[in-house]
Amino acid sequence: MIEPYQLSHHNAQHEAAHQRKFTFLAEELGSETAERILARLIDFQIAIPSWALGTGGTRFGRFAGGGEPRSLEEKIADVGLLHALNKSSGAISLHIPWDIPSDGEAIKQLAASHGLVFDAMNSNTFQDQAGQAHSYKFGSLQHTDARVRKQAVEHNIDVIRHGEALGSKSLTVWLSDGSSFPGQLSFRKAFERTLDGLREIYAALPADWKIFVEYKAFEPNFYSTTVGDWGQSYLYASKLGPKAYTLVDLGHHLPNANIEQIVSLLLMEGKLGGFHFNDSKYGDDDLTAGSIKPYQLFLIFNELADGMDARGLDHATGLGWMIDASHNVKDPLEDLLQSVEAIKLAYAQALLVDRTALENARENNDVAAAQEILQAAFRTDLRPLLAEARLRAGAAISPLGLFREQQIRRKLIETRGLKAVATGL
Ligand code: LRH
Ligand code: MN
Fold first, then answer.
1. Peptide bond into 220 cis (omega under 30)
2. What are phi and psi of 150, to 5 degrees?
3. 118 close to 108: Cβ distance less than 8 angstroms
4. How many whole angstroms from 360 Cα to the centroid of ligand 1?
5. Is 67 a member of any domain?
6. Cβ(78) to ligand 1 under 6 A?
7. pLDDT confidence of residue 1
8. Cα(102)–Cα(407) distance, integer angstroms
9. To 10 degrees, the CA torsion angle through 114, 115, 120, 121?
10. pLDDT confidence of 277, banded at 50, 70, 90?
11. Which ligand is nearest to the CA of 216?
């Protein structure tokens, strides 16, 4: 959807202004620092969720924007477009059964033709599928009926098998299980049954796979959630074994939770598996990353940069970097481009933090100095560095600019129609 001449024409148009800003910034930072951060940025890829390429909605309504992908093949083409624009979206995370690959090998090759690999697979035991034997109305792995639990375990193992065919190396398990009224559920039995089910799924993991246990405070249950917070997820992951980790979805916390502290401790324990990036003001709003609380996103990456170095983790491959969003009023592809930009900006700013000075300030309880050091990085406009990283990686100086200049959404509506609806949330 983007021809090489269109990309080079766009960059030629923006080159002079970009070079002016980048040269000034590189002088400010010093070339050693600028090159260090550029190298990290070029390697840093963020997986795109296959369920967020169409218009999302709420129980009150859904306002489709048109030109949505009608098949897994078209979803891969859309992620391929994002990757062509920013060379930062080199992976797609599938959700089963919303995106069952008809022919694993063919789908794998199609993705590879767009420079894409498959990140974590996602199972779905929060909806009943047509023809399904047992309902998940009262949960899946926690269910009081062993037949329901068995069905959920088998589904997760089926998802692993699909992932193996695609070259994925991890499974994310998010369970909507819980209760909506006091008295409804035995918390202890629900935990033990869920752990037993996760153990069967864990046993089916290939040797080089990971399982991510995603926690969430509430919704769709509104009294208790059986994997309700980082502590419960850590408990499951610790009892399961070395291939089990926690997954932090930024929207899955109670108001004012200190997510950067949670991230710091899970990383310290070696039990942080990855992220579902998004932003929120109230609940699991699934808004554009960095659109509501960009400082929190920076503080989270500040803990990540420090904690990953402390554990000798490779920044690009040591954790799962994924977006999980839902687009009610924005163009899905524009929203995803903005999320990738915000995530990489927070990462770059975290890499700019003077860690030695920060440690000194902390050890001397110089609180004001510590804040100055952090905010100096957060308040440095590193966008020219992100643009330079894209330019060097063969992408667009302004991905959103090129998307609009080429009227991609109008072209998608012409080929796919206004009524095209993507599977997903
Ligand atoms: C649950 C969740 C989970 C996905 C779903 C689409 O809120 O974050 O990660 O399975 O969204
Ligand atoms: Mn999520």
1. yes
2. -65, -40
3. yes
4. 40
5. yes
6. no
7. 80
8. 31
9. 30
10. very high
11. 1
Of the listed ligands, the closest to the CA of 176 is 1
Identity (one letter) of the amino acid at 394?
G
Residue 424 lies in a domain: no
Looking at the domain assignment, is residue 15 inside a domain? yes
Strands 320-323 and 61-62: unpaired
Q: What is the pLDDT of residue 21?
A: 98
pLDDT tens-place string over residues 34-89:
999 999 999 999 999 999 999 988 899 999 889 999 999 999 999 999 999 999 99
Question: What value does the mean pLDDT take over residues 1-21?
Answer: 96
Average pLDDT over residues 111-132: 98
How confident is residue 424, by pLDDT bands cut at 50, 70 and 90? confident
364: Cβ–Cβ under 8 A, 6 or more apart, which residues?
none
CA triple 272-274-275, angle to 5 deg: 125
Please say if the pLDDT value at position 353 is more than 80.
yes
Mean pLDDT of 372-385: 98
Please indicate whether residue 425, judged by its CB atom, sits closer than 6 Å to ligand 1. Answer: yes
Domain count, the chain: 1
| Domain membership flag for residue 425 | no
Whichever domain contains 375, its CATH number is 3.20.20.150
Ligand 1 centroid distance, CA of 274 (Å) = 14
CA-closest residue to ligand 1 atom 7: 284
Helix 146-166 crosses helix 187-203 at what angle (to 10 degrees)? 30
State which H helix or E strand residue 301 sits in: helix 294-311
Could you report the per-residue pLDDT of 317-328, keeping only the tens digit for each? 999 999 999 999
The residue segments making up the domain with residue 178 are: 4-416
**Does the Cβ of 99 fall within 6 Å of ligand 1?**
no
The pick from 51, 121, 174, 277 for probing ligand 1's pocket by mutation, whose C-beta has the most ligand atoms within 8 angstroms, reads 174
CB burial readout 163-194, b (16+ within 10 A) else e: beebebbbbbbbbbbbbeeeeebeeeebbebb
